[in-house]
């Protein structure tokens, strides 16, 4: 039964790949760059969409503190990629929203893909207690993340890029269940996933949210909720991941 459960993430990945292949190309919406926020502040166009990226900067600064002050865990390289990608997102998303177009969107999507790659690699390595495998996962997932964005840029097909985000939402809680991550860690990730889903809902209701709230658009709220999700994940790194390592190391020592 244990072996079957450990094969489940691989099966889920293959099934998702097959579903996306059968479904066919997923193009970007033709009106994607037409955001509701048309505000201007101190000469900054689309001010709410630009300035709401400060949330990513705050989360990344907390993450940099973690990287400097904490001992290296098995998932350190993956988490480092995640944190630096969140830092890059704060600047790249601001750059894109100053003058939204496909050329700038490439630089917005690239750090998002890399953040997903880093999180997948970090969590998997931490739970499996394999530093070397974690580094290999980071390298492989970086290649896939970059390729997914480049593929969209040249083909217009979002499937690989979306697959990376979907796998982050599905595989992480699956791994946590299989390898019995502490409850605190599972709850934090559950809240982070819920916030990210809420962010996507806000993104899809960009104009209607601005019309209702008047002061902030759905896309700006998306940035804030996504940054809060990233901040939650970074916040829990100081506690639950080290406890996973210590708990499982003690268990391994006591095993005959």
**Which stretches are poorly predicted, pLDDT < 50 over at least 5 residues?**
240-256
Give the count of helical stretches.
10
Main sheet specs: 2 strands, antiparallel
Separation of the first and last Cα atoms: 22 Å
Compressed to H and E, one letter per element, the order equals HEEHHHHHHHHH
What is the general shape?
A: globular
The share of residues in extended strands comes to under 5%
CATH top level is Mainly Alpha
Q: Please bin the fraction of helical residues.
A: over 70%
Q: By CATH's scheme, which homologous superfamily applies?
A: Rhodopsin 7-helix transmembrane proteins
Mean pLDDT value: 90
CATH fold title? Rhopdopsin 7-helix transmembrane proteins
Number of domains: 1
Write up this protein.
80% of the residues lie in helices and 2% in strands. The chain contains ten helices and two strands; from the N terminus they run H-E-E-H-H-H-H-H-H-H-H-H. The chain has helices at 2-23, 47-51, 54-69, 76-98, 102-128, 131-155, 159-178, 183-204, 206-213, 218-254, and strands spanning 40-41, 44-45. It has a two-stranded antiparallel sheet. The radius of gyration is 19 Å and the shape is globular. Mean pLDDT is 90; it is low at 240-256.
């Amino acid at each position: 039964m244990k072996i079957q459960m450990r094969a489940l993430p691989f099966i889920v990945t293959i099934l998702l790949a097959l579903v996306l292949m059968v479904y066919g190309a997923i193009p970007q919406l033709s009106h994607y760059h037409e955001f509701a926020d048309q505000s201007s502040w101190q000469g900054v166009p689309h001010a709410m969409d630009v300035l709401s990226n400060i949330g990513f900067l705050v989360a990344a600064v907390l993450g940099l503190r973690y990287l400097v002050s904490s001992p290296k865990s098995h998932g350190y390289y993956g988490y480092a990629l995640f944190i630096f990608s969140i830092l890059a997102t704060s600047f790249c998303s601001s750059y894109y929203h100053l003058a939204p177009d496909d050329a700038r969107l490439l630089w917005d999507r690239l750090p998002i893909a890399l953040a997903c790659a880093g999180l997948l690699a970090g969590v998997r390595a931490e739970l499996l207690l394999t530093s070397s495998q974690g580094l290999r996962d980071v390298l492989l997932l970086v290649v896939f993340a970059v390729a997914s964005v480049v593929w969209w840029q040249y083909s217009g097909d979002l499937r690989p890029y979306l697959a990376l985000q979907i796998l982050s939402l599905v595989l992480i809680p699956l791994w946590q269940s299989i390898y019995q991550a502490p409850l605190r860690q599972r709850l934090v990730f559950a809240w982070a996933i819920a916030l990210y889903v809420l962010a996507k809902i806000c993104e899809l209701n960009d104009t209607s949210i601005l019309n209702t709230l008047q002061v902030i658009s759905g896309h700006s709220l998306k940035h804030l909720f996504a940054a809060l999700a990233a901040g939650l994940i970074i916040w829990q790194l100081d506690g639950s991941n080290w406890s996973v390592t210590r708990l499982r190391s003690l268990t391994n020592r006591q095993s005959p």
